[in-house]
Amino acid sequence: MNHRPVSIVCLCVILIGLTTSRTRAADWPQFRGLRGSGVSTATQRLPADVAPNKHVRWKVDITPGVSSPVVVDGRIYLTGVKANNELVTFALSAVDGSQLWEKPAPITGIETTDKKPKGRLATPTVACDGKHVVSFFGSSGLLCYSIEGKRLWYRPMGPFENRRGASSSPVIHDGKVIVYQDHEVGSFLEAIDITNGKTVWRTERSLFNRSYGTPLIVKNNTGQHEIILVGSGLVTSYDVSSGKPIWFVKGTSAVANPMAVVGNGAFKHRLFIASANPGPKRSFQPDFDELTKHRDKNSDGKVMQDELPSGLFAAMFPKYDQNNNRILDADEYKAIQTFMGSCRNGLFAIDLVDVEDSKRSTPGLNRTDTHKRWSVTRSTPRTATPIYHEGHVYMMKDGGVFTSLNAKTGEVVKTERVPANGKFFSSPVLADGKIYVGDDRGKFVVFSAKPEWQLLSHADFGEPIYPTPAITNGRMYLRSETKLYCIGIGVE
Ligand SMILES: [Ca+2]
Ligand SMILES: [Ca+2]
């Protein structure tokens, strides 16, 4: 096998990357790495057999937390929960795992959430642009540090009403921190200036119930960057520069956990959306009377169009104002609820560009019938975000069913039960032609990243794995409940 041409191409990509961004192609700067893809473009070899006693370069005891490691320029950034619910952001050396700094967050509100797993209050993963480290602790707010650990700003947030607590991770795009928070009430999407912590824009998502995915930012065919959110019932896209809704597609589950996935190459404008929720259909809130009470600014007992919250609600309303009186009537609100309540479990594809787009004078906000492609309902994940790789999508269902599908048609190539039968809160990651993922019982499995994939190894780490591993420079950083492992092939 000749790796040299690939290495030269990648080196060029890295060098080009250096001139345009502070993070490099080899870095893993946010949840699921560069652009949230779950794929490392680094070309170094990685082991096919991963176990607590194999290829371990180092391991250190760390503060429990569910957030995933982020690695930028030789530093690993994490969050955790110490005794007495002290919430901390910390940095370790990628060379040996030694601690570089640790900073406590101001505690303004501890979320009332599930007790399990350990470290639950530190679930969102930090984001780093090579200069700033942004950490988020739900109702205890959003913090920005320098890479040396100096606190630059702090934004109180919440308190949020959410039985599972805040989980969506912040991402950084072009000097903005994008924060997506869908809760039982008060859902929103916000862009914050990374230099000072001030709001650039904020879009209400009042129609949306709780969901937990991290935003995906994609560039469409016109060069515009869209923020893709997988919410309750709908996938929505917003303009990253203004926060204005661009389109939506219906058909996600009542509560959605995974983030959106975008392909590349021939599929660079195709999204893959997974969501599943075993519970009952969502109960919508607020109900009509609550909404009226809350939004009726001039106390005339009616919600006029200009009293509606901004964002998707306001954008959708004209179509639902059946009697054109610019007032939200009870039956119109019910129609909106019914529309949004068309929840489904499964995986489907959306094309950012429709062949018919050029013929439409104004592409509609609702692209369900025009841009949605195939969908499948079997073996789809509840929490683990799928992976796109070379024309195929790979996904892991709770209980340990791993599946590959054709990205063009949705046709299943191979689906099989694997020796890891826990729940997958950790998302699979891909590097060196292999896919890696662990479950909440500590089982870890490795697959070849091919449509006719094979199980390469399986091992038991002896304690739960919730975070998603990070991969940079021939090293995988794997966080279990109490430890951080650095795994890689050594010079032996
Ligand atoms: Ca009114
Ligand atoms: Ca009306």
Summarize the topology.
Blueprint: H1 4-20, E1 56-61, E2 70-72, E3 75-81, E4 87-93, E5 99-104, E6 127-128, E7 132-136, E8 142-146, E9 151-155, E10 171-173, E11 176-181, E12 188-193, E13 199-204, E14 216-219, E15 225-230, E16 234-239, E17 245-250, E18 261-262, E19 270-275, H2 288-295, H3 312-320, H4 330-340, E20 346-351, H5 368-371, E21 372-376, E22 387-389, E23 392-397, E24 401-406, E25 412-417, E26 429-431, E27 434-438, E28 443-448, E29 455-460, E30 470-472, E31 475-479, E32 483-487
Antiparallel strand pairs: 1-32, 2-3, 3-4, 4-5, 6-7, 7-8, 8-9, 10-11, 11-12, 12-13, 14-15, 15-16, 16-17, 18-19, 19-20, 20-21, 22-23, 23-24, 24-25, 26-27, 27-28, 28-29, 30-31, 31-32
The site of one calcium ion has 7 residues, from loops.
Task: Characterize the structure shown.
There is one protein chain. This protein is mainly beta and 492 residues long. It folds into 2 domains: 4-284 and 341-487, 7 Propeller (Methylamine Dehydrogenase, Chain H), CATH 2.130.10; 285-340, no CATH class. Helix content is 10%, strand content 33%. The chain contains 5 helices and 32 strands. The chain has helices spanning 4-20, 288-295, 312-320, 330-340, 368-371, and strands at 56-61, 70-72, 75-81, 87-93, 99-104, 127-128, 132-136, 142-146, 151-155, 171-173, 176-181, 188-193, 199-204, 216-219, 225-230, 234-239, 245-250, 261-262, 270-275, 346-351, 372-376, 387-389, 392-397, 401-406, 412-417, 429-431, 434-438, 443-448, 455-460, 470-472, 475-479, 483-487. Strands 1-32-31-30 form a 4-stranded antiparallel β-sheet, with no helix packed on it. A 4-stranded antiparallel β-sheet has the order 2-3-4-5, with no helix packed on it. Strands 6-7-8-9 form a 4-stranded antiparallel β-sheet, with no helix packed on it. A hairpin with a 5-residue loop joins strand 14 (216-219) and strand 15 (225-230). The radius of gyration is 22 Å and the shape is globular. The two termini are 21 Å apart. The model is unreliable at 1-20 (pLDDT under 50). Bound molecules: calcium ion (2 copies). The site of one calcium ion has 6 residues, from loops.
